[in-house]
């Protein structure tokens, strides 16, 4: 009887975790997916778009500074602090066809991490960075609705449970205040996020092109979960 109760508690805990992962208000709904390939190709296209917007943000920030040596020094300082806590693209570096579910989960979690990190930049509400923040809002929406939610639809095909957005970390920058410019904290944080996000966009795009070219038959055999 005692062991039965323990098993029941474990089952309920897993059920609650699954419920939280699918009901964090990030996505309008998670629907059954009939064509995984189409979803992944859309994600790949959006990844290219996010990369282009990230480039615009970087150009806009660099245009504000007559010399960028100080800015780069601060960026490198922050990079050194956060390096050990960043999402690691293990499967996106060495892709195996047998781990498609794990691959999608790795991308979903990394995108959620940077989505939350962008929110942290927008909270700063730096007046001099109005244009950059408009682009960041565009990236934020793309990550959320066009990428994270689509990954969740794919993960549901593989019956995979993803962490809710509240269970995902974000970049923990130092508390250092930079005296060079009122906008320096915003710009340093923004440049760090942009450079890291671009790396992920390139990896995601390359892997999804690989999936489309080599493993399309595998994707087509995936059935929606009951």
How would you characterize the overall build of this protein?
The chain is an all-alpha fold and 226 residues long. 69% of the residues lie in helices and 0% in strands. It has eight helices and no strands. The protein is elongated and about 50 Å long.
- SSE sequence, one letter per element: HHHHHHHH
> What number is the mean pLDDT?
84
Low-confidence stretches: 2-20, 218-226
Helix/strand/pairing class, anyone? mainly alpha
Which key terms come to mind for this protein?
disordered C terminus; 226 residues; elongated; 0% strand; single chain; 69% helix; mainly alpha; disordered N terminus
In brief:
By secondary structure, this protein is mainly alpha-helical.
Topology:
Elements: H1 2-22, H2 36-62, H3 69-82, H4 90-93, H5 100-124, H6 130-157, H7 184-214, H8 216-220
Helix pairs in contact: 2-6, 2-7, 3-7, 5-6, 5-7
């Amino acid at each position: 009887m005692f062991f039965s109760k323990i098993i029941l508690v474990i089952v309920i805990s897993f059920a609650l975790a699954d419920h939280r992962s699918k009901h964090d208000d990030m996505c309008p709904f998670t629907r059954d997916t009939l064509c995984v390939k189409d979803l992944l190709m859309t994600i790949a296209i959006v990844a290219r778009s996010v990369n282009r917007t990230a480039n615009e943000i970087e150009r806009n920030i660099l245009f504000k500074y007559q010399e960028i040596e100080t800015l780069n020094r601060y960026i490198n300082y922050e990079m050194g602090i956060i390096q050990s806590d960043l999402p690691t693209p293990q499967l996106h570096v060495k892709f195996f066809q047998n781990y498609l579910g794990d691959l999608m989960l790795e991308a979903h979690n990394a995108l959620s991490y940077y989505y939350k990190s962008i929110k942290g930049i927008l909270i700063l509400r730096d007046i001099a960075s109005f244009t950059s923040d408009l682009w960041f809002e565009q990236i934020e929406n793309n990550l959320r609705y066009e990428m994270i939610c689509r990954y969740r639809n794919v993960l549901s095909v593989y019956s995979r449970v993803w962490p809710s957005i509240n269970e995902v970390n974000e970049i923990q920058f130092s508390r250092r205040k930079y005296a060079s410019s009122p906008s320096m904290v915003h710009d340093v944080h923004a440049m760090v996020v942009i450079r890291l996000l671009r790396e992920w966009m390139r990896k995601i795009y390359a892997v999804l092109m690989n999936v489309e070219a080599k493993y399309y038959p595998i994707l087509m055999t995936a059935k929606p979960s009951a």
